Amino acid sequence: MKAAWSTPAMLAAALLFGAAAGTAQAESAGEKLFKQQCAACHAVTKDAPIGAGPNLLGVLGKEAGKMDGYRYSAEFKKGLEGQKWTPELLEAWLTDPQALASGTYMMYKQNDAAVRKSIIEYLATVK
Ligand code: HEC
After folding, report:
1. Cα angle for residues 83, 87, 92 (degrees, 5° grid)
2. pLDDT value of residue 26
3. Using CA atoms, how far apart are residues 8 and 12, in angstroms rounded to an integer?
């Protein structure tokens, strides 16, 4: 019955099954949120091409503005130079980047504390 598998309906069924199997690998809430809200600009895997923003692999504990290969804005450097990324600093950053570095390129703001917390917890796991 080789022919049956080549019909679009069977192919769709196979794809759906594949997608369901994928989500079974428990993606955390934070990872999901990161993909929705940050991944358009930030990669978190080694050697990923640099996007609109710096690669955030291992960012917690690092000094701000030191991710390889990224050209930060002068405003970012002025606002954050010498500071280390702690959960507290990230919390302030995601709440309002412009408040820490007026004029920074990062156009993002998150008012929901639960969302910020989830994303920060996820970032602590990518290292
Ligand atoms: C629209 C693009 C965009 C989105 C969306 C975005 N960022 Fe950024 N982010 C940037 C840019 C651009 C910079 C560099 C800022 C500069 O140089 O002024 C940056 C910088 C950062 C830094 C500083 C890293 C370092 O190297 O010191 C962190 C941390 C960060 N972003 C986290 C996040 C997180 C977490 C999210 C999602 C909740 C997010 N960003 C969403 C564009 C974005």
Report:
1. 70
2. 80
3. 6
Distance of alpha carbon 86 from alpha carbon 80, whole angstroms = 12
- Whether 55 has a pLDDT exceeding 60, the answer reads yes
Pocket probe for ligand 1: among 35, 42, 63, the residue whose CB has the most ligand atoms within 8 Å is 42
Ligand 1, from 34, 36, 38: best to mutate by most atoms within 8 Å of Cβ?
A: 38
Q: How far is CA 12 from the centre of its chain?
A: 30
Query: Which domains does the chain carry?
Result: 28-123 (1.10.760.10)
Closest ligand 1 atom to 104 CA: 18
Q: What is the mean pLDDT of the chain?
A: 88
| 24 contact partners, CB below 8 Å, separation of at least 6 | none
Nearest CA to ligand 1 atom 27: 64
Ligand 1 atom 36: residue of nearest CA:
38
